[in-house]
Design a protein that fits this description.
Aminopeptidase, alpha+beta, 32% strand, seven-stranded mixed sheet, 165 residues
């Protein structure tokens, strides 16, 4: 089931956040970056984000356990809606859940306010090709060597106007 997060979900979201990073980035990013991840730090972050009115935080829940989430930010200051965090545990990847979560966020966007969706992803993340399958276009890249050698962040973007999709 995909639903909007509530404040009591913060602990499980923080746990998925840390576990997903460790599942995805072990052997890719510097080990000290992974070692520095903590559920407590992420919990404080998600406790702030969940009630924020400009964030739309979706969770995927199965049997009472959150197994993935998408944090969409409807920026009030410009025409870009951002996906700030999008994590699914490996055990549920490839089942169409990510696509369904992305589409739920996309449905919230009113093109008269937000003409684009944008997200950043580490170049060595094998899931980045999912964004290309979803129609995202790589529109930029930035150095992220603080995470490890040869690591960059790639910016993907989707247009919300008919002529930009």
């Amino acid at each position: 089931m995909i639903r909007i997060a509530v404040e009591s979900d913060a602990q499980q979201i923080a746990e998925v956040h840390v576990r997903s990073w460790k599942e995805t980035y072990t052997g890719i990013v510097k080990q000290d970056v992974l070692d520095d991840l903590s559920v407590a730090k992420r919990l404080a972050l998600w406790q702030q984000i969940i009630p924020h009115r400009d964030h739309q935080l979706f969770v995927y829940e199965k049997n009472g356990k959150i197994l993935g989430f998408l944090d969409g930010y409807l920026n009030p200051d410009n025409d870009v809606a951002e996906i700030r965090a999008f994590y699914l545990l490996k055990s549920i990847q490839g089942e169409g859940i990510g696509r369904a979560m992305f589409e739920k966020f996309q449905q919230l966007i009113r093109p008269e306010h937000h003409r684009k969706i944008r997200l950043e992803v580490i170049n060595k993340n094998p899931s980045r090709y999912f964004y290309e399958k979803m129609g995202g276009k790589a529109v930029g890249e930035e150095d992220a060597s603080d995470l490890g050698e040869g690591i960059t962040e790639i910016f993907y973007q989707w247009g919300m106007d008919k002529d930009q999709k």
